[in-house]
Amino acid sequence: MTDRTLFSPLHAGKIDMANRVVMAPLTRNRARPEDDTPTALHVEYYRQRATAGLIITEATQITPEGKGYAWTPGIYSAAQVAGWRAVTDAVHGAGGRIVLQLWHVGRVSHTSLQQGGKAPVAPSAIGAGTKTFDGTGFVDTSVPRALETAELPRIVADYAHATANARAAGFDGVEIHAANGYLIHQFLATGSNHRTDGYGGSVANRTRLLAEVVAAVVGAWDADHVGIRLSPFSNANGVSDSDPMTTFGAAVDIVDAAGLAYLHMVEGQTGGSRDLPAGQDIAALRARFRGVYIANNGYDRTMAMEAVASGRADAVAFGVPFIANPDLVERLRRNAPLNKADRATFYGGGAEGYTDYPMLEAAD
Ligand code: 8OZ
């Protein structure tokens, strides 16, 4: 036991955090429609939340192919790098730290969101059976095309390119989004990966894309600036695995061997139950990683303080509470009441429900 608390500093690799309250990645669908670029509204939104120990940006596509929802931002073009530079400057000016979440949705997309109306790509031609938002409403995701083996080096290189762009945009690091049923998770999980090449079948094969992406991202920056998000027991976006302890044990071993700055886990079902069936054990997975562990999913103040004080987690990521409370850290410190989040303004729109939640002083 130590005297560490939710409010004491933490070093995750070379990322220095003033406290252990992390802003979780949150999709808000407010990028500029013409070019998927962050806007002045993003600058204001993230600046308001800069007292978080660490901000993890909303999931950000590494290429046009990696996009699965309307109005999500990218990190592949010069205009996007410039837009993100304004965000990182604002957060750093306010004393905060911010990493960019690298995203490829794989099959969780729709032909109308893909260049030339093409089918989305995936490990196998198996639909996600979920919905996405195409800018007009919720539509069924399209049946994907199985990626050729020869295409995978291009996708790995896209992660490296996006990482170099994030570095150029002034971020403190990047987080590889390997959770919630998106591309990397689709390769990991038996339900979505029926490949017969070197990227399917055995655990070593299903974790191969993850290992290659980790190596490429570390190669484009260094491990001290790279974290990863996993959701080992989540069925988000239609993923399922026949033996998640084995699959994700191997995944965590890869992350540990690479010496990443942090491991960020969605504990249980994404945005849902934290209860796990017998044999599924977050602590056993976490124990295989020697770096900083960021816990997520349904934490409140009491749970978060206990998790950090006991050593079960090094930091805790809050999602919905950060939407409605830009000064969440101060509210948790004072045990002050929290604003309630308005679900109607989560995805899409402008300033309403985005940059207009009151700070504590204004709410008093
Ligand atoms: C909510 C809506 C759209 C995308 C995730 C990036 O679950 C997401 C996401 C969440 O990781």
Commentary on this structure:
The chain is an alpha/beta fold and 364 residues long. It has one domain: Aldolase class I (TIM Barrel). 30% of the residues lie in helices and 16% in strands. It contains 12 helices and 14 strands. The strands form 4 sheets. An 8-stranded parallel barrel has the order 3-4-5-10-11-12-13-14, surrounded by 5 helices. A two-stranded antiparallel ribbon has the order 1-2. Strand 11, helix 7 and strand 12 form a beta-alpha-beta unit. Helix 3 runs parallel beside helix 6 and helix 6 runs parallel beside helix 7. The longest helix has 17 residues. The protein is globular, with a radius of gyration of 19 Å. 50% of the residues are buried. The structure holds 2-Phenylacrylic acid. 2-Phenylacrylic acid binds next to loops.
Taking all residues together, what is the mean pLDDT?
97
Tally of strands: 14
State the major sheet: 8 strands, parallel, barrel
What is the CATH architecture assignment? Alpha-Beta Barrel
The H/E string reads EEEHEHEEEEEHEHHHEHEHEHEHHH
CA-based shape: globular
**Residue share in helices?**
25-40%
Distance between the termini: 36 Å
CATH topology: TIM Barrel
Q: Within the largest sheet, what's the order of strands? A: 3-4-5-10-11-12-13-14
Rg measurement, Å: 19 Å
Q: Which cofactor or ligand species appear?
A: 2-Phenylacrylic acid
Task: Kindly give the count of domains.
Answer: 1
CATH homologous superfamily (4th level) name: Aldolase class I
Structural class: alpha/beta
CATH class: Alpha Beta
- The parts where pLDDT drops under 50 for at least 5 residues are none
Percent strand equals 15-25%
- Give the helix tally: 12
